[in-house]
Amino acid sequence: MASKITKAVIPAAGLGTRFLPATKAMPKEMLPVVDKPAIQYVVEEAVAAGLTDVLMVTGRNKNALENHFDRMTELEATLELKGDTDRLSKVEFSNDLADMHYVRQGDPRGLGHAVLRARMHVGDQPFAVLLGDDLIDARDVLLSRMLEEQAARNATVIALMEVDPAQSHMYGIATVEATVDDDVVRITGLVEKPAQGTAPSNLAIIGRYVLRPEIFGILERTDPGKGGEIQLTDALLEMAEKNVAGGVYGVVFRGRRYDTGDRLDYIKAIVQLAVDREDLGPDLRPWLKQFSSTLE
Fold first, then answer.
1. Which residue among 2, 144, 208, 291 is the one 20 to 30 A from 131 at the CA level?
2. CA 177: distance to chain centroid?
């Protein structure tokens, strides 16, 4: 029987160049999505799935990430003195979300290298990896479903989502075999950003993984690819093709996902989340309808 997974790894060492100059002095993970930084959504998702031990793989100029999940006694005291209990509770909420740990990536050598930096913390147990650019709506189930499948199969599990075939060249795409479960497939191949018209399916990898610890040994000997980066996809492909530690399975997610790694999609994510908020939606929805009617 597989042991219960409690550890999550969140790579957060990227430079966020697509959001310059906003990210010149602030980590891209701290950009607000409505009124919370993007990274908090990710940590909350991990905790909701039972992953209470969170390791963040950071880089230079990322101190704001650590500060956000730590106490700010001066601010808390000021809010308490004012009797502003609502804002105080929101500030305090992030303090004790999870048992937070941090490690520097050092050289920016890709996602595979970032995952490899978690080896000492993770040890020889399965663990989850959550990418901060992908936000999964809290009302939809993904990570918990992946953890269930990992426990049942004791294998590596990745998240997949159907995409427009015309957009397949923008993603890692999986070759799959069906299983008895409608939302679970067995991965037989992976290709990173295939040329247009050559994708083996329309199932794209999105930023959630539940990995067996054998991934570390494979990553250690994975040759750097484009840009000198160690690709996690290359290591997963080897696990799938050689059936390492039970192989690789995919959970097909059909819920709401918000991409905050692109400027336009980031704006869309804020709007999509805000319209469903009880405190913002009633005023925002009619304004959006009126505004959209003025557009040609």
1. 2
2. 25
Q: What are φ and ψ of residue 102, in 5° steps?
A: -140, 140
Query: How many residues does the structure list for the chain?
Result: 296
Residue 63, classified by CB atoms within 10 Å of its CB into exposed (0-12), middle (13-18) or buried (19+), is exposed
CB 133 within 8 A of CB 207: yes
Dihedral (CA of 155, 159, 163, 169) sign: negative
Q: Is 187:174 a contact under the CB 8 Å cutoff?
A: yes
- Please give the C-alpha separations between residue 155 and each of 16, 47, 113, 220, 249, in angstroms, as whole numbers: 32, 22, 21, 20, 7
pLDDT of 3: 61
Q: Which domains does the chain have, with CATH numbers?
A: 7-261 (3.90.550.10), 262-296 (no CATH)
Going by the DSSP 8-state scheme, the letter that residue 180 receives in this structure is: S
The per-residue pLDDT for range 81-96, each reduced to its tens digit, is 999 999 999 988 988 8
Which pair of tokens denotes residue 213?
């610890």
CB atoms within 10 A of CB 23: 18
More confident residue, 37 or 168: 37
